[in-house]
């Protein structure tokens, strides 16, 4: 009989529980990390240690290796599986390795862009987080191995496009196969309440863990500047922590533990499935936070009013007025007309026949691709990926995103600016604004599959009409079971 997965069991039973984040940074040894995790598991209510990968964009230990060592000690790991530096084969091999080790829990995330990396999205990101969830789900269906998939969501976004898109993307992740979600960190109970309301109103029953980060002053100052990407602490919170540090003899430790306990109490009151505690590896302090939260639980509503650290004038999905839709631009209207998916049925056969003829001549096909690029490159930033999804992204090319995301913004957006190139607007702001102008926001929930990389440099019109490209109604298969089988055999051989 398969071993019981405590996370699945607790979430199925609706029991409020805890997961503790284990930062597998390079400065800590593997033995120390496993000892730390062993300490967490002695704390009542803690289900698992969640082992990071590329936390904050810095390389560290292999989380699968740490997870395996934890599991050997009887501790449940939740492995962070990022898309950073992994192609589909590599991800398939990682899943096969997890299957062989009997590790079910994976946290599927895009991952921060590696600090100081000179590499490009082309070499660093093959999939985005929604495609990764889809991949794991397909692997689960094909192998029967019960991967239990968590995904990230950040309600702590304070502009309309960033905020609305985070929620749209969560819906995509759930539709792709996510079992539960974990929020990014933030200190605003109004945003936590907003997420719950968004999900409740849409009948989304997927459990959510709320992030509780034990926040020291140094980290608060960094979060205030949006570092690491996706983390946020308001000016008021930084000032509050500074005051706590100045007024205490313990550098503000008691105050930050109290704040963490309050957040747990609030999350429990709001109906979160559990709390995901990070920022402290000390098991005694984790125990204190949990016990103290139980004392504070009856007055969670009052605490929620106290804990509303947000930027001035920040956007709230249900409270703030939504911006007026802009007018559709001339180019967008033209693009709508020439978009292959909008071709009238009577013309489809003629165009397909003509493109089939062109395709027979490599020189003619190359010439068509050059003409296509000459128009699409300056207008849309096209990079000739050969799998055109401009029509699904309001004519913003996904290849202009520094992570090549196709299903919505990563968690690193900061007031509409890009995580990787902060002086540049996140491309998804424009996608959202244009979708709003065209009354197509709901269509942004369409899952866009990974591209077929072998089509790079070829005509997307030929690929579309001859059904070669990867798009929603014609996705390239993500996984072949042979990948897993080969990886498993290799692992057995290497033992
Ligand atoms: S453009 Fe947006 S989604 Fe792409 S890397 Fe930058 S912040 Fe992330």
Write up what this structure looks like:
The protein is an alpha/beta fold and 495 residues long. The chain folds into two domains: 6-215 and 250-306, TIM Barrel; 330-465, no CATH class. 46% of the residues lie in helices and 9% in strands. The chain is built from 19 helices and eight strands. The protein has helices at 6-13, 30-40, 63-72, 88-101, 121-124, 129-143, 160-176, 189-201, 217-224, 235-247, 253-270, 283-296, 300-306, 330-338, 345-360, 362-380, 427-437, 460-465, 481-494; strands at residues 17-22, 46-51, 77-82, 105-109, 148-153, 180-183, 208-213, 274-278. The chain has an eight-stranded parallel beta barrel with strand order 1-2-3-4-5-6-7-8, surrounded by six helices. The chain is globular. The protein starts with 5 loop residues before the first helix and ends with a helix. Bound molecules: iron/sulfur cluster. Residues 401-403, 405, 409-410, 412-413, 418-420, 426-428 line the site of iron/sulfur cluster.
What are the main properties of this structure?
single chain; 495 residues; alpha/beta; TIM Barrel; 2 domains; eight-stranded parallel beta barrel; 19 helices; 8 strands; 46% helix; binds iron/sulfur cluster
Please write out the topology.
Layout: H1 6-13, E1 17-22, H2 30-40, E2 46-51, H3 63-72, E3 77-82, H4 88-101, E4 105-109, H5 121-124, H6 129-143, E5 148-153, H7 160-176, E6 180-183, H8 189-201, E7 208-213, H9 217-224, H10 235-247, H11 253-270, E8 274-278, H12 283-296, H13 300-306, H14 330-338, H15 345-360, H16 362-380, H17 427-437, H18 460-465, H19 481-494
Parallel strand pairs: 1-2, 1-8, 2-3, 3-4, 4-5, 5-6, 6-7, 7-8
Helix pairs in contact: 2-3, 4-19, 6-7, 7-17, 8-11, 9-10, 11-12, 11-13, 15-16
The structure holds iron/sulfur cluster.
């Amino acid at each position: 009989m398969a071993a019981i997965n405590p996370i699945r069991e607790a979430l199925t039973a609706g029991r409020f529980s805890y997961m503790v984040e284990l930062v597998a940074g390079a400065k800590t040894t593997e033995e120390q990390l496993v000892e730390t995790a062993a300490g967490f598991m002695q704390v009542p209510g803690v289900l698992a240690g969640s082992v990071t990968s590329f936390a904050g964009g810095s390389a560290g230990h292999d989380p699968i290796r740490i997870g395996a060592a934890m599991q050997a000690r009887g501790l449940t790991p939740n492995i962070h599986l990022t898309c950073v530096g992994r192609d589909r084969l590599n991800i398939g091999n990682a899943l096969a390795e997890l299957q062989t080790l009997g590790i079910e829990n994976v946290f599927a995330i895009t991952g921060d862009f590696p600090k100081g990396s000179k590499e490009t999205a082309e070499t660093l990101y093959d999939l985005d987080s929604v495609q990764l969830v889809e991949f794991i789900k397909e692997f689960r269906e094909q192998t029967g191995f019960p991967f239990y998939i968590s995904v990230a969501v950040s309600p702590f976004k304070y502009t309309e496009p960033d905020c609305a898109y985070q929620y749209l993307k969560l819906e995509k992740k759930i539709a792709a196969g996510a079992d539960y979600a974990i929020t990014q960190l933030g200190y605003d109970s109004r945003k936590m309440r907003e997420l719950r309301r968004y999900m409740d109103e849409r009948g989304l029953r997927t459990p959510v863990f709320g992030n509780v980060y034990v926040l020291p002053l140094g980290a608060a100052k960094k979060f205030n500047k949006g570092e690491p990407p996706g983390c946020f602490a308001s000016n008021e919170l930084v000032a509050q922590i500074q005051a706590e540090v100045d007024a205490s003899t313990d550098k503000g430790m008691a105050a930050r533990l109290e704040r963490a306990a309050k957040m747990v109490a609030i999350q429990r009151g709001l109906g979160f499935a559990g709390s995901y505690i990070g920022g402290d590896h000390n098991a005694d302090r984790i125990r204190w936070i949990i016990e103290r939260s139980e004392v504070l639980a009856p007055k969670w509503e009052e605490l929620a009013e106290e804990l509303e650290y947000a930027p001035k004038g920040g956007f709230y999905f249900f409270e703030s007025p939504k911006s007026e839709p802009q007018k559709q631009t001339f180019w967008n209207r033209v693009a709508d007309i020439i978009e292959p998916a909008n071709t009238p049925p009577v013309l489809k056969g003629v165009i397909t026949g003509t493109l089939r003829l062109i395709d027979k001549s490599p020189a003619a096909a190359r010439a068509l691709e050059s003409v296509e690029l000459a128009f699409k490159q300056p207008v849309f930033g096209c990079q000739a990926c050969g799998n055109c999804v401009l029509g699904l992204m309001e004519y913003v090319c996904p290849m202009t995103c520094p992570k090549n995301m196709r299903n919505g913004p990563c968690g690193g957006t900061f007031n509409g600016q890009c995580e990787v190139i902060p002086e540049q607007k996140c491309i998804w702001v424009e996608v959202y604004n244009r979708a709003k102008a065209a009354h197509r926001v709901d269509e942004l929930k369409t899952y866009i599959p990974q591209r077929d990389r072998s089509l790079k440099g070829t005509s997307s019109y030929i690929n579309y009409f001859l059904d070669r490209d990867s798009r929603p109604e014609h996705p390239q298969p993500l996984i072949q079971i042979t990948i897993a089988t080969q990886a498993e055999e290799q692992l057995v051989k290497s033992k």
